[in-house]
Amino acid sequence: MLSLDFLDDVRRMNKRQLYYQVLNFGMIVSSALMIWKGLMVVTGSESPIVVVLSGSMEPAFHRGDLLFLTNRIEDPIRVGEIVVFRIEGREIPIVHRVLKIHEKQNGDIKFLTKGDNNAVDDRGLYKRGQHWLEKKDVVGRARGISNGTRES
Amino acid sequence: MDLLVMKEEALYLRRNVEDFTGPRERSDLAFVTFDITADLQSIFDWNVKQLFLYLSAEYSTKNNALNQVVLWDKIILRGDNPRLFLKDMKSKYFFFDDGNGLKGNRNVTLTLSWNVVPNAGLLPLVTGSGHMSVPFPDTYETTKSY
């Protein structure tokens, strides 16, 4: 019944009003897109807001929480930071804490990560034969958090 | 954020072993025992959900200009006792170097830092004001047990 009312409303509009409504709708969608793209530029990250997928960082992050990321290449990687990284060949990024870093004079760095809630470091998750992560594996740094919906 | 932090190391020795936690190269392995006294009450406010506390060692070697290794960490939830009085703690994670840069290294600094995890908002990393220098000996130990 609702759909019929909506169609009646549309039929009652003249062409100009119809175009106006379509443009209005288009503006709202464009604004949302602009805000999202703007966030991408400001943070430098491809996905400035991500959802926590696993419980490996509990009790800090629970599944469903929102994380706000930045990805400035100039930011040095230091222990204690929460980085979002991708393992070669895997699509899903992982959000864990940096446990160890070894950085050379020229800036080349290799580091190890571990989830707060995991008993061991992430070496078991890395690619076969891979013992360290590098700057190129990082897709972001967690800078802010917002509680999401709780499963229970 | 002000709080009083003091750490002291008690004993330290190193061995030249294959890094069994990862790359199979012979690297220095260090053992550090420490005490931690801290009062974190002032960091907890209405928005702080938990603190991720960690003790890290920072030093320079011939191989690497900067090395940082987390030796120990602890999660302190809001409501837990914010006063820490830990004695004779052993490191939680193996203190392996990337190479042999710990032998005779006089400039290894231990710092206590924490990550403030709010209910909502920014996730700052704060370094405590106290820090300790741990001068490592020039020789390896093979007999001591940890």
From TrEMBL, chain A:
<dbReference type="InterPro" id="IPR019756">
    <property type="entry name" value="Pept_S26A_signal_pept_1_Ser-AS"/>
</dbReference>
<dbReference type="GO" id="GO:0006465">
    <property type="term" value="P:signal peptide processing"/>
</dbReference>
<keyword id="KW-0645">Protease</keyword>
<feature type="transmembrane region" description="Helical">
    <location>
        <begin position="18"/>
        <end position="36"/>
    </location>
</feature>
<keyword id="KW-0812">Transmembrane</keyword>
<comment type="subunit">
    <text>Component of the signal peptidase complex paralog A (SPC-A) composed of a catalytic subunit SEC11A and three accessory subunits SPCS1, SPCS2 and SPCS3. Within the complex, interacts with SPCS2 and SPCS3. The complex induces a local thinning of the ER membrane which is used to measure the length of the signal peptide (SP) h-region of protein substrates. This ensures the selectivity of the complex towards h-regions shorter than 18-20 amino acids.</text>
</comment>
<keyword id="KW-1133">Transmembrane helix</keyword>
<keyword id="KW-0472">Membrane</keyword>
<dbReference type="InterPro" id="IPR019758">
    <property type="entry name" value="Pept_S26A_signal_pept_1_CS"/>
</dbReference>
<feature type="domain" description="Peptidase S24/S26A/S26B/S26C">
    <location>
        <begin position="36"/>
        <end position="126"/>
    </location>
</feature>
<keyword id="KW-0256">Endoplasmic reticulum</keyword>
<dbReference type="InterPro" id="IPR036286">
    <property type="entry name" value="LexA/Signal_pep-like_sf"/>
</dbReference>
<dbReference type="InterPro" id="IPR015927">
    <property type="entry name" value="Peptidase_S24_S26A/B/C"/>
</dbReference>
<keyword id="KW-0378">Hydrolase</keyword>
<comment type="function">
    <text>Catalytic component of the signal peptidase complex (SPC) which catalyzes the cleavage of N-terminal signal sequences from nascent proteins as they are translocated into the lumen of the endoplasmic reticulum. Specifically cleaves N-terminal signal peptides that contain a hydrophobic alpha-helix (h-region) shorter than 18-20 amino acids.</text>
</comment>
<protein>
    <recommendedName>
        <fullName>Signal peptidase complex catalytic subunit SEC11</fullName>
        <ecNumber>3.4.21.89</ecNumber>
    </recommendedName>
</protein>
<dbReference type="InterPro" id="IPR019533">
    <property type="entry name" value="Peptidase_S26"/>
</dbReference>
<comment type="similarity">
    <text>Belongs to the peptidase S26B family.</text>
</comment>
<keyword id="KW-0735">Signal-anchor</keyword>
<dbReference type="GO" id="GO:0009003">
    <property type="term" value="F:signal peptidase activity"/>
</dbReference>
<dbReference type="GO" id="GO:0005787">
    <property type="term" value="C:signal peptidase complex"/>
</dbReference>
<dbReference type="GO" id="GO:0004252">
    <property type="term" value="F:serine-type endopeptidase activity"/>
</dbReference>
UniProtKB/TrEMBL annotation, chain B:
<keyword id="KW-0812">Transmembrane</keyword>
<dbReference type="GO" id="GO:0045047">
    <property type="term" value="P:protein targeting to ER"/>
</dbReference>
<dbReference type="GO" id="GO:0005787">
    <property type="term" value="C:signal peptidase complex"/>
</dbReference>
<keyword id="KW-0256">Endoplasmic reticulum</keyword>
<comment type="similarity">
    <text>Belongs to the SPCS3 family.</text>
</comment>
<keyword id="KW-1133">Transmembrane helix</keyword>
<comment type="function">
    <text>Essential component of the signal peptidase complex (SPC) which catalyzes the cleavage of N-terminal signal sequences from nascent proteins as they are translocated into the lumen of the endoplasmic reticulum. Essential for the SPC catalytic activity, possibly by stabilizing and positioning the active center of the complex close to the lumenal surface.</text>
</comment>
<dbReference type="Pfam" id="PF04573">
    <property type="entry name" value="SPC22"/>
</dbReference>
<dbReference type="InterPro" id="IPR007653">
    <property type="entry name" value="SPC3"/>
</dbReference>
<dbReference type="GO" id="GO:0006465">
    <property type="term" value="P:signal peptide processing"/>
</dbReference>
<keyword id="KW-0472">Membrane</keyword>
<protein>
    <recommendedName>
        <fullName>Signal peptidase complex subunit 3</fullName>
    </recommendedName>
</protein>
<keyword id="KW-0735">Signal-anchor</keyword>
